[in-house]
Design goal:
The structure is a homodimer.
Chain A lengths: L1 E5 L10 E2 L1 E6 L6 E6 L2 E5 L4 E6 L4 H9 L1 E6 L5 H7 L9 H4 L4 E2 L8 E2 L4 E13 L2 E14 L18 E4 L2 E3 L14
Antiparallel strand pairs in A: 2-12, 3-4, 3-7, 5-6, 6-11, 7-10, 8-9, 10-11, 12-13
Chain lengths: ~190, ~190
Amino acid sequence: MLQDGAAPGACYFYYPRLVCVVGARDDGVPTTNLAPITWATPLSTDPPLFGICLSPQTHSHALVLRTGEFSVSYLPFAFASQVAAMGRVSGRSVDKARQFGIRLAEPTALATPWLADAYAAVECLLVDRHHFGDQTLLVGEVQAVHMATGAFDEDGVLRPEQVRALVYLGNRRYATLDVASVGQPEDGQ
Amino acid sequence: MLQDGAAPGACYFYYPRLVCVVGARDDGVPTTNLAPITWATPLSTDPPLFGICLSPQTHSHALVLRTGEFSVSYLPFAFASQVAAMGRVSGRSVDKARQFGIRLAEPTALATPWLADAYAAVECLLVDRHHFGDQTLLVGEVQAVHMATGAFDEDGVLRPEQVRALVYLGNRRYATLDVASVGQPEDGQ
């Protein structure tokens, strides 16, 4: 039983999505703007490319184009309140890191800070960009990866029993994974 | 405590990601190839654009370029085994829908079938494409949306208590959301 052929935009079919926080370096104070987003995807393994979508009207968009780089940080579910709050204000008027108690960490490959409480973060060099409709896809080549100790297994896969990932459902709702549901189907799940 | 400055590729920082199944129309038998992927993202709200990443070496890539369209279907967690199995074979040699018991549904806007057991599916017209590293980003404009009755609320947001979304963690592991964790942080979560 389906509501067939509904208009595009009838639902947010693409959620839930993992939340990440884009860091963009500023020349003044604050030093770094923070923008939580979910429209992002890996684009290539070799070279390692990661794409983020930002509206051309955002402060982060201007900063990334100016500096030619950005960071991407993954905060755990416990930070849902701060992430939601960060998404409701513009970095043009607010020092988000200071206002929401977010600690910045020093980059190792580039010049843009990332988030010290992230279980994973990457530093990206802007290598390409394309406008699609009302957004810009900013393509970063990953220059360095930061991982919280114990967050990933020896294969580089997240340990869901150690890290509660933060996912967004739409309409200001967040959730995390059901650890008990994790499994490999071919093992008889 | 962080493993700082690890090499790009040290971990799959971008998982968990929602799983979708790309449908690509074929002229012969099978009529439709099915490819489960997670490297996908909305790209624009107006117009409604959705991007999927496919390797140029895949059968689906060739079919999408030939037909100029694709479908994207979201199967619930209960289909994890079929999804994992679909990802292990090529549509060049196997009729995946037939082999894995997947029922196809008739399109309403375009000519590419989608999956009848999906809680959400969209029909996309290929409007743009870009090569990024070892993948191609295929950009589709959403022409029609199909939703299972009751799967989405009046705001178009997934009802996690009705639909168990299927997410991929890497290394052949799948999971779903913890329904009890869903909340709006500003409500005091």
